[in-house]
Amino acid sequence: MTLPTETSLDAFHDLDTWPLPRTLEAVVRGSAEAVEAVRNALPELERAAAGIERALAAGGRLVYVGAGTSGRLAVQDAAELPPTFGFEGAHAVLAGGEDAGERALEGAEDDEDEARTRLAALALGADDAVVGVAASGSTPFTVAGIVFARAQGAFTVGIANNPVTPLLTAAAVGVLLETPPEVLAGSTRLAAGTAQKVALNALSTAVMVRSGGAYGNLMVGLRPQNIKLRGRAVRMIVQATGCDPAEAEGALSAALAVGGGVREAIMTLLTGLSPGDAKARLKRHHNRVREAL
User: Yes or no: is domain 4-212 CATH 3.40.50.620?
Assistant: First the structure.
């Protein structure tokens, strides 16, 4: 049986003869349809996000598993969580290891033992959440990883672009992103990859916001580790408190001195607490600024 993601559509059979504008428009249209596929999966994404949120609230980690394009998208999402939200519990298990992040190592996706070995090294437990991503829904590395993680008691999510596939049934929550066949037949870095990127963004952002990563729509878990981010942090503090930039800069410096950051700076300015006391109060409220206030 030919999977939808591998189907070659007659509408594109002479793609190599098309003028440039027509080719570009077709690829962009496919990406737009990919976003709609994610919208159709919102009920499943909500179940997935709720399970991940419960795991992280219990002190667990968020682990991504994937191969090829899907795995590289997962690595990207995991890598963004520490600087954006200050979340240190994100891990990515990519078939082929770090080298596969820069160049394709397609044979690695068949290695089930590697998936089990690398996940075993993380000592997964019931407080962890593991998300597997594979366009086909049948990638051996990814499916084996999810099966192993679920056997360890972890909450598992499987994201695939084909229905009735092993990854969707192996996970506690299966998320089907039913994208159309690709403009370039079988090239799932296109619409399928776009849908996966949108779904991963939605999942991680929603969970992190609800886990204290935002105050309003401000990313207060941000790490101000360079000039640009320091300026962004100061602007967020000004917006949240109404203080002037100099006060915001001072509060941020004081918060950083005790191992805090934007959250603590906002707390000190709005409550008069010392940076240390603000940090302690935030800890009692799971770093949720609104609750701590």
Answer: no
